[in-house]
Amino acid sequence: MNFRFVAHLIGLVIVAVGAGILVSAGVSAIYGDADMWSLLVSGGMALAAGIPLYFATALPGRTYIGYREGFLSVGLGWIVAMLFGALPYMVYGLFSPVDAFFESMSGFTTTGASVLTDYNQPHGILFWRSLTHWYGGMGIIVLFVAVLRPMGAGAMRLFRAEAPGPVPERLTPKIRDTAKSLWLIYVGLTALEAALLRAFGMDLFQAFCHAFGTMATGGFSPLVGSIGSYDNVAFELIVVVFMFIAGGNFALYFAVIRGRGYGLYKNPEFRVYVGIMVASVVAVATSLMLSKSHFDPGHALREALFQVVSIQTTTGYVTADFDRWNTFAKVLLVLLMFVGGSAGSTGGGFKVARIMVLVKNARHELTRQVHPQAVLPLKIGGARGPGICARRCVGVLQHIRDGLRRGDTLGGGHQRRSRHLRDLGGGYSEQHRSGTGSCRSHPELCVHGPLREDRADRAHGDRAPGALRDPSAAVAGILAALMLGGGLARGVTRASGRAIARGLIPDRVLSAMIDARIRRVLSRLDDLSPEALAERDGELRCRLAAAPIAVNTGEANEQHYELPPAFLQIMLGPRLKYSSCLWPAVVDDLDAAEEAMLELTTERAGLTDGQRVLELGCGWGSLSLWAAERFPGSYITAVTNSRLQAEFVRERARERRLSNLEAVHADARHLRPEGTFDRIVSVEMFEHMKNYSELFARIAGWIEPGGILFVHVFCHRRYAYEFDATDPGAWMARRFFTGGTMPSFALLPSMCRDLRLENAWIVNGTHYARTLQAWLDKLDSCRGEARSVLAEVHGDEGAEQALAEWRLFLMACRQTFSMRRGREYFVGHYAWRR
User: Fold this and answer.
1) Contact of 620 with 645, CB cutoff 8 Å
2) Cα–Cα dist 485/508, whole Å
3) What is the pTM (predicted TM-score) of this model?
4) pLDDT tens digits, residue range 103-127?
5) Is the dihedral of CA 70, 111, 409, 512 positive or negative?
6) Which end of the chain has fewer beta carbons closer than 10 Å to its terminal beta carbon, N or C?
7) What gap in Å lies between CA 2 and CA 64, rounded to an integer?
8) Phi/psi at 375 (nearest 5 deg)?
């Protein structure tokens, strides 16, 4: 490693930053602002550090520069530039050190994020803020390649480490001349834009600041309202043209200057770049004209043109509040942000060239599946590209994917939490699918029975398995990985998570993201070896056997069962059945679906008149009230962990004059019912339990000889796992299933030693998915009323977020239960006899 060269280049970087600060001091002197001395001191400090370092590390003759020196010089050079670039903000007293470094980093990286809130600042500071953008647009290192003495092959290595795009283009035989040409084009276009803005009436200072931000595609503006502050069509058109130019490949502009203008039209990337932009402008403008706001054609085209070009080139200037636009327009803008500009441009994003390479490479891979021996060179526009081009593009995508896997850090994390997912065998369902009242009487419930796929398939599903963790974090992780890296990604993750929690992300985007994440996690689990699955099974059994019967019972009440009944009455059906309903072919509404599942539960539990019945986890009393009405000669004891639910069921029983129903408030861990029962029924309570072996042993002592325990529980066909609320990414576990367990279909039978399993059935997951969709539809139809009810618990400010979280919860559950047409997650019914 040639550290002398690296130090030499770092010294030059510091000198360049210091020179820029002094230029900003000159601007301040022209306007007579108070920040001049702060800028002079800052610039002097930079020069005092940079000049001695530069001369002390002067290189003797031609020096070898390897790839390591190139990458270290570029990476360290930018960090040092940001550190010294923060000096003016700190010396002037505008920002704290952390905020100053953030503003400097945002400027040099042309990110455009800002902590500046008061734009009434001196000219020198605002000029330096915009100048950091301009430095970062083409790159300081590229400038040094142009002005330093010849460095041989080392110049290309520096250029390659700095220049954007899959493979940097050499415009001239010498890379030094290429760098010089790029910077001359960059300077010329900046000056031309500033001149045009000044000619049409913009202040000279503001013209240069906006030209810096436009050509660097960074977006810093000296005005709080950006370009929109002027409301001037001429300014907007000029900025649009130069944003478009900045997002294009500067190598093409070099060709135009050399008289090869036809290269623009013939370049395939440029055609795709223009095509995407034109199509997006037309689509957004059309959607605005057709939206409820009823934009007139001219206004719609003007706003669509500026916002589309600004977003795709990642400049970030705005002239409209597009957060008020329709969902289609907002989603399209988000996608354009990821696409970005062309390779060899100052724009950000994934780059059009990389997308083209990936599409062509994918097509080649599909062709090779049919013709394995085929030689398929990668060609872009008729020119054969090097293999490394495709590998680098795939590498960038792989890096994004790996970032999502590690930060499943960002999205919930499977690998570092895999200990919570233990397979407990999947062959059990085949063994117990026969029996009275199963496939023969209800074929639509069976895994291999006929499925009703109209509305059921339209609903997508999840009771949020812990392995899937947090769908909101998954989306945030994707956004963060695509936009930024390192520490800044965590900030984007948090911001994106808040946007999702507040309902700012369209439902279809969320559903697609949740669905993709579920499939990815299940694919990993399916790849585990039988040995690994057996080990997971044993570890989970040991943990459950050593745990209390239930944990976090207080949190379960807060999350689900101590809500105002009025909220559940808005969302659920008339029976307030807060569990899966049944949607056979003859059922089309939630009311009938509730009745159908209650009928099925009654049949499979063997409930008849004249029995003593204990319901464990009665919820809001749907089954207990049903049974008390249906069987007046039976006596029903309904047990719930929620005091509010117990009071609600008692009140309902009094209203209906049901003297054969008693509601009991008790913790399942300490429950000691009086006497024994002919039937014990539990509907979606076992998901909140831990030590199933101990629970079954206790229940066995409460059942009369020959009596039946019937359990309705949601589960996975093969894998069981716990919901880990301690994981930072586990939004679902923290918010809705603290202390819960997702059983596999085989888990409960494998842990019951005191009762004999008589029957087991599967209710296809699409029934639950349709139930969740119906709840979501009801919630959406009464949003105002639901928000008012939630405000009683969360206050006016928290009600909107709480409502958005409930919607997200219902969508996540819906996605999971519709996976693989309801064959992945579903409802298990079990009947044990003593």
Assistant:
1) yes
2) 26
3) 0.48
4) 999 888 888 888 888 888 899 999 9
5) negative
6) N
7) 8
8) -100, 115
